[in-house]
Amino acid sequence: MESRRRGRPRSFDREAALAQATLLFWERGYEATSVADLTRVMGIGPPSLYAAFGDKRALFEEVVDSYGHAFGAFAARALEQEPTTRAGVARMLREAAEEYTRPGRPRGCLVISAATNCTSEEVEGALRERRNATVRDIQRRIEHDISTGELPEGTDARVLAVYVGAVVQGLSQQARDGATRAELEAVAAAAMSAWP
Amino acid sequence: MESRRRGRPRSFDREAALAQATLLFWERGYEATSVADLTRVMGIGPPSLYAAFGDKRALFEEVVDSYGHAFGAFAARALEQEPTTRAGVARMLREAAEEYTRPGRPRGCLVISAATNCTSEEVEGALRERRNATVRDIQRRIEHDISTGELPEGTDARVLAVYVGAVVQGLSQQARDGATRAELEAVAAAAMSAWP
DNA sequence: GTCATTCCATAGCGACCACTACAGAAATTG
DNA sequence: CAATTTCTGTAGTGGTCGCTATGGAATGAC
């Protein structure tokens, strides 16, 4: 017979605590968020945090994964569901303008902003690799659309992909700097008029 | 008669020390740079730093000013010297691609990246205000060009200015993420094809 | 020379950092 | 019931943070 785990059970909701940690890391970034800040918003003591999540860095990695599924999935969804890369990128930019300015949550993108100026090269590098992987994914889709004739033959796929990445990062930064949703949606539309 | 200052003279080059501090803040950001790091690269002890510059934050403010004159002036120069805002922005983006990837110095823009995720709201806000002031300056130039007919009447000056700001910030971030000068110059050119 | 002034090097301040030792509390096992 | 296991709250650990007290060194004034 399967039995429940022995010993004293955990006295807090792990998922809820993870969600609170996500919001705090999202708003303040990795290094500016202290373990004391985390335990306060998670409503637990330091030993509970370390027992449940390992250490600050492991918690952050779990936060990044959780964020990618909950808040960052719109981008992959847009690229996947639209029939062309052009339509996918247009939708991704439009939804980014909306997601990055949604009331009641931190502005901008955690993957873009949470590990800049980070003492730990591993943490900063992990998020950089995520960003660059997205740019490479877009580049591959552009290359595919060039091969099918959907995009003109002379198109530089890498440059166009970096342009899209730069616009997304710019939207995140502008959202953090106070731009409104309507402004960023118009910026996203304007950015698409550079599409070949 | 004017006499030299009394007492023991300073035993280091203040400008050279400020330049070293600029490079370090540029590369690592405000909070990730410790006073111990600064005194090491500046070649002085902590009391000399505090006597010459006040405290860490005052030193950073002086660094930001110095950076603005030495490394950030290309943007204002481009906007000022070109006959139209279009030409000014095009030159600014082209030169940003070059400046942000120049070998032998940190990548990207200090004003954009050095105070993100900063515990001190004043420091982060000061750089945000600089960024937003640049966007407002571009907006004013666009409005002027609309009034002279250089730009079409229906142009949304604020949105176009935010677009330019987002592209510049995206170029800085992409430079930090490893994009090459050639790639960013091509991105800058592509971004201009969204100009009305 | 002597004094006043200014700067420098050492050494260390309290505060906060990520993290943990320890003991008691709450569950299952028998 | 007692024994075992697991988690929790308190109270710290050593280390680094920005910053400074102190005493001696290097200058100009006289």
* Radius of gyration based on Cα positions of chain A: 19 Å
Give the N-to-C terminal Cα separation of chain A.
63 Å
Spell the H/E element sequence of chain A: HHHHHHHHHH
CATH superfamily of the largest domain in chain A: Tetracycline Repressor, domain 2
Largest sheet of chain A: none
**Which CATH first-tier class of the largest domain in chain A would you pick?**
Mainly Alpha
Give the count of helical stretches of chain A. Answer: 10
Look up the CATH topology of the largest domain in chain A: Tetracycline Repressor, domain 2
Instruction: Tell me the number of strands of chain A.
Output: 0
Biggest contact: A-B, 43 and 43 residues
Helix content of chain A: 55-70%
What is the CATH-assigned architecture of the largest domain in chain A?
Orthogonal Bundle
What is the subunit arrangement here?
homodimer
Secondary structure layout plus pairing:
Two copies of one chain form a homodimer.
Chain A: H1 14-28, H2 35-42, H3 46-53, H4 56-70, H5 73-81, H6 85-99, H7 110-113, H8 121-147, H9 157-176, H10 181-192
Helix pairs in contact in A: 1-2, 1-4, 5-6, 6-9, 6-10, 8-9, 9-10
The structure holds a DNA duplex (30 and 30 nucleotides).
